[in-house]
Amino acid sequence: MILEEQGISLFTIVPIIVGIGFVIVIGILITRAAKGLNTWTTNNNSPILTVPVAIVAKRTEVSGGGQDSMATTSYYATFELEDGERVELRVSGKVYGSFVEGDNGTLTYQGTRYHQFERKL
């Protein structure tokens, strides 16, 4: 083998490749944890707002679901405030199912965190 002729064996290369892979995986995990912590902190430092809104859109996002893995569905609702600004928030599947586009009511949220929607009858 060419590498062995140069004094390099697989016993030298494989641990280096495995080590690099390990560092990459740990780096990805640390980055995702830092992003989640940043979002959590930002939401906690945001004021809790209660505003009149209309539900203008609903959407789902499916991730995973390859051969042997489970699929995960995330649910989102887009609310339009009186000034025309739109806010998209992640909601539970149960809450998502109760929403109808065009509903009007009062939304309570904090940053990107959904709290409650009270439909105006």
Automatic annotation (TrEMBL):
Listed transmembrane segments: 6-30
Keywords, alphabetical: Membrane, Transmembrane, Transmembrane helix
Classification via InterPro entries: DUF2500
Pfam short name (any one): DUF2500
Record's protein name: DUF2500 domain-containing protein
